[in-house]
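Q: Could you fold this chain for me?
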Amino acid sequence: MTDERAEEVGLASGSTEGTGNAAPSHGPADLERALEAILMVVDEPQSLVHLATALDAPVPAIRQSIERLVADYDGESGGPRRGFELREVGGGWRIYVRPEHDAAVAAFVLTQNPTKLSQAALETLAVIAYKQPISRGAIAAIRAVNVDSVVRTLLGRGLIAEAYTDTETGAIHYATTDQLLVQLGINSLDELPPISPLLPDGSDGFDDL
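A: Sure. Below is the predicted structure, expressed as structure tokens.
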């Protein structure tokens, strides 16, 4: 039995051995609102076990609450269909804008953020452009700094997008968008200048990392 499976079994049975605290009583509505609050701020999909641990609640209760939230957002509970959805990606759950609203959100973000990108954002964007698709962890390893906020900025500007999620690690990999090509005035990433002539040792700067 894997550690994660063992943890899920323990949480599902309501066991709190080793924590020193009894599991609190969560009403379904309270649990759903707590889950919403967490899912509104996370950057990566969250597993049921992780959510159950954070809220000190049994995994089955978390799963049922997630299912009710999905139905609610999809308009299956009698209310309107929301402009966002709760989607399972790479073994975890996260709130996403519905695809049919991507253009509206991108247009809004572009009109609300006319300021220039910071040096940190430009450096991160360059790493993604030359190494895509690439995960946030790999970007951070190359730049040797935390890039969470910068990646959020680039996503918000519509310059990068989620390419895919690694099924084994759950890590989201990012790639540049057509909006970047528009901003740079080029037709293809093939038109990006070679980076090796700009580096002291003549390497491409990334392959050895």
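A (continued): The beta strands are 84-89, 92-97, 134-135, 160-165, 172-176.
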